[in-house]
Amino acid sequence: MQARIIVGGWHPALHRLEVQTLLEAAGIESEVEHPRVLRVDSDDLDVDIVDRCSSITRWLLGGGRVDHMDTEALLDTILAAPGPAPSESDDRQQSIAVRVENIDGGGVGISHSTLILELGARLASMGWVFDLQAPDYEFVVVCVGEEQAQHPEMEQLPRKAHILWGLSQPADSTSITWQERTGPMRPFFKPVGLDPRIARAMVNLAHPHIPDGRLALADPLCGTGGVLIEAALLGVHSYGSDLDEEMVEGTQMNLDWLWNEQDELAAVTIEVDDALDFTLDEPVPAFAFDPPYGRNSWQSEDGRELLLGTLTRCYENATDDARLITLLPWPAEHVAAMRAGKVVDMDEFHTYGTAWAEMRELIGNCGWTVLTTVPISVHGSLSRLLVVCERRR
Which of 53, 209, 210, 313 is buried deepest, with most CB atoms within 10 A? Predict the structure, then answer.
């Protein structure tokens, strides 16, 4: 059986990369059908991936896909296919709700109320009990459009309007949401704090495997602790350090706050230390860090030596198969050009006053191979470049 994963609309390219990295680590193949839709070879919901990856909005099992059509034709198509039967349970009848959702401008001319009424009647005849507030399952129809997301794509992808449907399970609501983990919501906050969605993606990209309890990830420039918070929530035992004592104390405040809000967190070790000179008790397979930067860091060499020295020190503390994720200051003109549909050459842009082609070589000289990059818009005059690396052997 095939399933489809719908990723969030804030930054589909980043979300897809995160999801596909986790899928690959789990041995699940995937194919891009739309910037926000992945088709996967799976006959079951992978709860671990869904729980780890906040960028997944839906994991649809079974069901189908058709080109955009009117409500009547769509209803006939869905009703002609076998419907999901409730599984037998000695305790109680399983509940369901019908949801109809539009993404990227999809659903033009589709009557949500008609679909919900008619599909609900079909499911009731099959033995389902309805619970609109807290159902065990949801039968979801997703109308997919052609609008471009806020963050443009680096490559040409299929974007044809279509409609999907399938069985889904509601998201787990026991964990604090990413909105509740943003910088201003924590007891210690600095404007340079990392968006939790990016921090979560960085941890998953660096360490896509199921945690085994051992020290697995290091952030030698921990700042206010954004990466460490996400690692703790994901069950990844982590180490963090910063040369600024205020940052380390603030990170501890944020972690103490998190431990009061959430159960079952992984251990975090933090200390005041120099990113250019830190030493771990044992090598780790994952690094994720966000170097300090200023408004014009992309065109200034300030910070370049800190970055390269940190990369070298990470290499010396890494396992042979280690992965490293970092964020570099990046000119907003690159993202603006992509939004305008222009073909751009990344090698022409600069970070820390260095052309990307040269910076990629410098990263290689520090022992890391760049696997892929994703530009992320911060505001009108600055973007960040998320860089995914693996250790050279």
Answer: 53
pLDDT along the chain (393 residues), means of 10: 90 95 93 95 79 89 95 97 81 89 95 97 94 94 89 82 93 69 90 89 96 95 96 96 96 95 92 97 97 66 90 98 97 87 88 95 98 89 93 93
Strand partners, 268: 238
pLDDT of 298 reads: 57
Who contacts 384 (Cβ-Cβ below 8 Å, separation ≥6)? 198, 327, 328, 329, 330, 375, 376, 378
Q: Do 222 and 150 belong to one domain?
A: no
What was the pLDDT predicted at 89? 65
Q: Are both 151 and 11 inside the same structural domain?
A: yes
What gap in Å lies between CA 78 and CA 76, rounded to an integer? 6
Question: Residue 54 is part of a domain; what is its CATH number?
Answer: 3.30.2130.30
> What pTM was estimated for this model as a whole?
0.93
* Residue among 98, 112, 106 nearest 9 (CA): 106
Token pair listed for 83:
């419907």
Q: Are both 193 and 152 inside the same structural domain?
A: no
**Beta strands at 129-130 and 95-103: parallel, antiparallel or unpaired:** parallel
**DSSP bridge pairs for 141:** 100, 165
Per this entry, what is the length of the chain? 393
**Is the distance from CB of 309 to CB of 363 less than 8 angstroms?**
no
Note down the domain range covering 308: 179-391
- Asked whether the beta carbons of 378 and 385 are under 8 A apart, the reply is no
Task: Give, as one character, the DSSP assignment of residue 152.
Answer: P
User: How many angstroms separate the first and last alpha carbons of the chain?
Assistant: 38
The domain tally of the chain equals 2
Structural contact between residues 45 and 60, judged by C-beta atoms closer than 8 angstroms: no
Domain stops at, among 145, 168, 191: 168
